[in-house]
Amino acid sequence: MNLTYIRVHGKCRFALRQSISRRKPISAARSCSALRLSLVLTTALAGLLVMTACNRSHPTSEPLSTDNEWHEFQGTWTAAGSRDRIALGDGRRASTAKFEGSLLLAGPSRPAVGFRAEALVLNDTTTGLVGRAVWTDDRGDQVFSELKGNGDSTGNKIIGRFVGGTGRYSGASGGYEFSWRFVLETEDGTIQGQSMGLSGTIHVGSAQAALNAGSPR
């Protein structure tokens, strides 16, 4: 409600003017579409930030040492994807999920500034979680890991174990651990989340060790 200045019979008067907002209610379909669009933009932006950070740091980054050195790191894994679920009775549930996102690392001996991170996960609320992950850096080199966790659906602890890689991560070993927090879960299976307290160590075998491993015995 606003005051307006008008002239009545040659005299100035203040009058009340009521503005009426005519907004149409937002439908559930439009709201869901907007949510999906926001999710896609968030994931795309995260991936762009990773690649920008990697490209800026590439000229000054040092090659990953292979002289029996362990590289410690901390970081944040942000990902979005889709999930399918089934009920197994008595409150037990199982699900499969595919995640795609970005991993930003910190620490003076981190193996890289960031990775594009993908994971496939099978989760059972009784037996726990198993999965596989692939991290790809700005050079296209990849590091592979196995995932295991307990059966809790919120804040569950997940342990990753490196099982090799390509390029500068050939022969990678070590591991990492983190908890996972979902920030979005929709009825159609769209999910988004991020890690909490992610940290670990990675070791890459020397070139001579890789040659010995590939030689006949």
Overview of this protein structure:
The chain is α+β, with helices and mostly antiparallel strands and 217 residues long. The protein has one domain (36-57, 68-206): Beta Barrel (AOC barrel-like), CATH 2.40.350.10. It contains 2 helices and 10 strands, in the order ββαββββββββα. The chain has helices at residues 28-57, 207-214; strands at 2-8, 11-17, 70-87, 93-106, 114-124, 128-136, 142-149, 157-165, 173-185, 190-203. The strands form 2 sheets. The protein has an 8-stranded antiparallel barrel with strand order 3-4-5-6-7-8-9-10. A two-stranded antiparallel sheet has the order 1-2. It is elongated. The chain starts with a strand and ends with a helix.
SS summary, helix count: 2
The CATH architecture can be given as Beta Barrel
* Structural classification: alpha+beta
How many domain modules? 1
The CATH homologous superfamily is termed: SO1590-like
Strand percent estimate: over 45%
Strand order across the largest sheet: 3-4-5-6-7-8-9-10
End-to-end separation in angstroms reads 89 Å
Give the helix proportion (percent range): 10-25%
Q: Give the strand tally.
A: 10
Structure keywords:
217 residues, alpha+beta, AOC barrel-like, eight-stranded antiparallel barrel, two-stranded antiparallel sheet, 2 helices, elongated
Compact overview of the structure:
This protein is of the alpha+beta class and 217 residues long. It has helices at 28-57, 207-214, and strands at 2-8, 11-17, 70-87, 93-106, 114-124, 128-136, 142-149, 157-165, 173-185, 190-203.
Secondary structure blueprint with pairings:
Elements (H helix, E strand, L loop, with lengths): L1 E7 L2 E7 L10 H30 L12 E18 L5 E14 L7 E11 L3 E9 L5 E8 L7 E9 L7 E13 L4 E14 L3 H8 L3
Antiparallel strand pairs: 1-2, 3-4, 3-10, 4-5, 5-6, 6-7, 7-8, 8-9, 9-10
